[in-house]
Automatic annotation (TrEMBL), chain A:
Gene, per the UniProt record: cobQ_2
Domain CobB/CobQ-like glutamine amidotransferase: 5-205
Protein name as catalogued: Lipid II isoglutaminyl synthase (glutamine-hydrolyzing) subunit GatD
Organism annotation: Ruminiclostridium hungatei (Clostridium hungatei)
Reaction(s) catalysed (UniProt annotation): beta-D-GlcNAc-(1->4)-Mur2Ac(oyl-L-Ala-gamma-D-Glu-L-Lys-D-Ala-D-Ala)-di-trans,octa-cis-undecaprenyl diphosphate + L-glutamine + ATP + H2O = beta-D-GlcNAc-(1->4)-Mur2Ac(oyl-L-Ala-D-isoglutaminyl-L-Lys-D-Ala-D-Ala)-di-trans,octa-cis-undecaprenyl diphosphate + L-glutamate + ADP + phosphate + H(+); L-glutamine + H2O = L-glutamate + NH4(+)
Cleavable signal peptide: none
Role played: The lipid II isoglutaminyl synthase complex catalyzes the formation of alpha-D-isoglutamine in the cell wall lipid II stem peptide. The GatD subunit catalyzes the hydrolysis of glutamine to glutamate and ammonia. The resulting ammonia molecule is channeled to the active site of MurT.
Active site: 95 (nucleophile), 198
Assembly: Forms a heterodimer with MurT.
EC number: 6.3.5.13, 3.5.1.2
Sequence positions that bind substrate: 129
PANTHER family in UniProt: DETHIOBIOTIN SYNTHETASE, LIPID II ISOGLUTAMINYL SYNTHASE (GLUTAMINE-HYDROLYZING) SUBUNIT GATD
From TrEMBL, chain B:
Top EC class of this enzyme: ligase
Positions of the catalytic residues: 374
An annotated Gene Ontology molecular function: acid-amino acid ligase activity
Name of the protein in question: Lipid II isoglutaminyl synthase (glutamine-hydrolyzing) subunit MurT
Domain Lipid II isoglutaminyl synthase (glutamine-hydrolyzing) subunit MurT C-terminal per the UniProt entry, residue ranges: 338-452
Pathway: Cell wall biogenesis; peptidoglycan biosynthesis
Annotated InterPro entries: Lipid_II_synth_MurT, Mur-like_cat_sf, Mur_ligase_cen, MurT_C
BP-aspect Gene Ontology terms: cell wall organization; peptidoglycan biosynthetic process; regulation of cell shape
Domain Mur ligase central: 54-195
Length: 250, 470
């Protein structure tokens, strides 16, 4: 029997757009795959020891809350987060959590806010928000040999750019993605997965959820091979109904 | 004689007539036209009314309707807008209808529900005698933006108003109550008395709660009592900001049913010379409606209406228009309950499981502009609470434009997937839903706003549902 420890970082502050759904998806799918999970909430002032966890999740917050965590994440937990990333720990970072992994956030009026710098990426604030359904294709997550189409919802004014050594999570088919310019969405570095997609991201994209669970299991159990197959009728229906509407294809 | 004023009113009135002849109940266009002709129109005609305004995230419509009931009980000559017409243009249309061609008022009082995002704009033109602010919860972030922007917009709107406006605020909402600080206006608070047993917990809020951090100093709030969401006896140990004392309080929940709540409540000076105790059966279920009732009662008493007329309104009030609207079909009942955001949805789920009856329900989720195009909020709704009494869960249907997403949400709450069905066709949904509801039972339909309009249209044709406050 395998088990996984999931850490929800700043759940009381980075929780704006139904991000809790990602935790539920990891928990439920693990349960359906007969894997035990334990979710631990770690927030401001709490000590953070990454060796206790197999998957670490960071969601998105509103500006007010993101300001509150700024110093805690940089000064208290930053070193540990960076070490965990280099040590191949599995991370999922959405929206604000994604931006936070980068080097800085430059507001539209030129103020530069220092971020964690764990990943070589940066964000520039825009005046217009990019809001709407998004469909992107990822060749990192595959169904057999085929790239997988991922659907979500984006709502961000920051435009994120990827530096050397950071791969995008996918190519935008419909929507804006990282910055609305280069056609990329999200970022992948080692076992860190970042995306602007909430909605929530994982429940409707079970292959991505299983991919993250598998990565974590491989890290923890050398004998782990692969997850079994689950009935994804509802998830598939939800994903294809969005794709049909957005891409106007049958 | 202001020529543009007359032309403005005439144009809008003509538009109202034409739209009526075309059987299009448009409430936006006439107001827009009136503004185009003369931007000063609303200010000029509204100043002759005694205006009551209601704004906030949740409970605007219900609170407005209860205040309306109080006005009716006092035979007040009033006008009021429908919740679908709560933006600047819709509000303008209502006033145009209520004046003569020269702009003289044909009624005394105007009871106006205002969208919280439009409030700042609306108060450029209106001088209300009283403003009720219900609460602030996260709602349709794609439309309203972040919660604090909404709060700040309402604050700017209030700052425009003179000291003679009375503010009626929710004492238990740290954001709403903050509007009463540093103001020369008369402020009246309503809330849940801290020792009232509402089944909530003490201590800090749940991790997914709004406004957990002090609006002044960003420290985490503590609570003497929590009612739901971030509502309750909040206080900041760092800067001392805390729940203000309330002038009207619910002091006890005697009985909470799935269609009513009986409460003890008290009103204190300046709402009455001495404290007065009451026991009232509110004709609506759920703690959120206790708040709506308190908001309306505070407003009624503040405006000088008699206590009896207020308690009568709370007891007899029927909301309709998708807010706890009942339709009898043979020996079964269909109940329509609008859902808009996590807090409201949670409240509905918690009173639906109060009864010992089996829960048969359909969730109709649309993502049109008026619903919010982002449905990620479904993941902030605590469907997990349905697992507390699995034997009570009957058939659950997922429908609406995002019915499939709704089914996924229910699945991940841990409910048995055999009980979840996706039916997108509303006729078929009604048929199956009623079929599988036991005799004497209730089929609950929980739609988002535009889904409510659609299903209500079908129900109206099928069962002769009456039109509410047209």
């Amino acid at each position: 029997m395998y088990d996984l420890n999931i850490c929800h970082l700043y759940p009381d502050l980075l929780n704006t757009y139904g991000d809790r759904g990602n935790i539920l998806a990891l928990q439920k799918r693990a349960q359906w795959h007969s894997i035990d999970t334990l979710v631990t909430n770690v927030t401001i002032g709490d000590s953070f020891d990454s060796s206790l966890y197999d998957i670490i999740f960071l969601g998105g917050g509103q500006d007010y809350e993101q300001e509150i965590i700024q110093s805690d994440v940089l000064n208290q937990k930053g070193t540990e987060i960076k070490a965990a990333i280099e040590g191949m720990k599995v991370f999922l970072c959405i929206c604000g959590g994604y931006q936070l992994m980068g080097k800085y956030y430059k507001t539209w009026d030129g103020k530069e806010i220092e971020f964690l710098g764990a990943l070589d990426l940066w964000t520039v604030g825009g005046k217009e928000r990019m809001i709407g359904n998004i469909v992107f294709e990822s060749d990192i997550i595959k169904a057999g040999d085929n790239p997988v189409r991922i659907v979500g919802f984006e709502n961000h004014s920051g435009r994120t750019y990827l530096g050397q050594g950071i791969k995008p999570l996918g190519r935008v088919i419909s929507g804006n993605g990282n910055n609305g310019e280069d056609g990329f969405e999200g970022a992948v570095y080692k076992n860190v997965y970042c995306s602007y997609s909430h909605g929530s991201l994982l429940p409707k994209n079970p292959l991505l959820t299983d991919h993250l669970l598998s990565l974590a299991l491989k890290q923890k159990y050398p004998d782990f091979e692969a997850l079994g197959v689950l009935d994804d009728t509802f998830e598939d229906a939800a994903r294809s109904s969005v794709m049909q509407r957005i891409l106007k294809t049958p | 004689m202001n020529f543009r004023k007359v032309v403005s009113i005439f144009t809008a009135k003509l538009a109202i007539k034409v739209l009526r002849i075309l059987k299009r109940g448009g409430t936006t266009l006439p107001g827009k036209l009136a503004f185009k002709v003369w931007p000063g129109i609303l200010k000029s005609i509204a100043c002759n009314f005694e205006i009551i305004m209601v704004t906030g995230t949740n409970g605007k419509t219900t609170t407005t309707r209860i205040i309306e009931e109080i006005l009716k009980n006092n035979s007040v000559d009033y006008i009021t807008n429908k919740s679908g017409a709560n933006l600047l243009s819709g509000i303008t249309t209502i006033f145009i209808q209520a004046v003569t061609l020269t702009g003289s008022p044909r009624h005394k009082v105007a009871l106006i529900e205002s969208d919280e995002a439009a409030f700042n704009q609306v108060t450029k033109h209106l001088r209300p005698k009283a403003v009720v602010v219900t609460n602030f919860f996260r709602d349709q972030l794609d439309r309203y933006g972040e919660l604090y922007s909404t709060l700040n917009a309402v604050k700017s709107g209030l700052d425009r108003l003179s000291g003679s406006t009375a503010l009626i605020l929710n004492a238990d909402d740290s954001m709403c109550a903050s509007l009463g600080r540093e103001t020369e206006k008369q402020v009246l608070y309503y809330g849940m008395a801290p020792d009232t047993d509402t089944g909530g917990k003490s201590g800090a809020g749940d991790i997914n709660t709004d406004a957990m951090f002090c609006i002044n100093c960003k420290s985490k709030y503590e609570y003497t009592n929590r009612v739901y969401g971030h509502l309750g006896g909040f206080y900041c140990t760092n800067c001392g900001y805390g729940r203000p004392a309330a002038n009207l309080e619910c002091t006890g929940i005697r009985e909470a049913g799935s269609s009513f709540t009986t409460i003890d409540w008290v009103n204190k000076p300046p709402l009455s010379a001495d404290s007065q105790q009451h026991v009232t059966r509110i004709n609506l279920p759920g703690l959120y409606n206790v708040y709506n009732a308190m908001a309306a009662a505070t407003c009624g008493l503040a405006l000088g209406y008699g206590t009896q007329s207020v308690t009568d309104a709370l007891q007899s009030f029927e909301c309709g228009f998708g807010r706890m609207e009942s339709i009898t079909v043979g020996d079964k009942t269909i109940k329509l309950i609008l859902v808009k955001n996590p807090t409201g949805f949670n409240q509905v789920l918690s009173f639906l499981t109060l009864d010992n009856q089996q829960l048969n329900a359909a969730f109709l989720i649309n993502d049109n502009l008026a619903d919010g195009t982002d449905i990620s909020w479904l993941w902030d709704v605590d469907f997990e609470q349905l697992n507390d009494s699995p034997h009570k869960i009957g058939n659950l249907f997922a429908s609406g434009i995002r019915g499939e997403d709704m089914a996924v949400r229910l699945k991940y709450s841990g409910l048995d997937t055999n009980k979840i069905r996706i039916i997108k066709d509303y006729q078929l949904l009604l048929e199956r839903g009623l079929e599988q509801t036991p005799a004497g039972g209730c089929f609950h339909i929980l739609p988002t706003y535009t889904a409510m309009l659609d299903i209500r249209g079908i129900l109206k044709k099928k069962y002769n549902l009456k039109e509410f406050w047209k």
